[in-house]
Amino acid sequence: MTKSKFVIDKLAKLFEQGLISYKDLNSEIFNILRSKRDEIVFKMKLVSKEELDILTKRVENLEKEIKKFEKKGVRKKFKKGK
Questions:
Q1: Which of 22, 40, 30, 23 is nearest to 10 (CA)?
Q2: Which pLDDT tens digit goes with each residue over 43-61?
Q3: What confidence tens digit (pLDDT) does each residue in 13-43 have?
């Protein structure tokens, strides 16, 4: 109930300020929703899209290297120590 009250209060403030045109209202609603989304993401401590892309590229590169070594059959032979 408090979340819906928050949205209704924001919309009421918009009407009080005289934002009557559809485009102004639309942009303000999207700004409100983006800010709430950012708050939720911040609270969940999620990574940004750029960080996620970098991590997926690293994983892909490591998978390629593993496949390359598996194809070559490269295994290190260890000598016994005295």
A1: 30
A2: 777 777 788 788 889 999 9
A3: 767 766 566 677 777 788 888 888 777 777 7
Chain centroid, CA 13 distance in Å:
30
CA distance 32 to 8: 11
- The Cα–Cα gap between 23 and 3 comes to 24
Q: Is the pLDDT of residue 2 over 90?
A: no
Residue pair 14/25 in contact by the 8 Å Cβ criterion: yes
Does residue 7 contact residue 32 with C-beta atoms inside 8 Å? yes
| 23 to 8, 16, 19, 73, 82: CA distances (angstroms) | 18, 16, 9, 63, 81
Of residues 67, 6, 58, the one with CA closest to residue 36: 6
Structure tokens belonging to residue 7: 């949205």
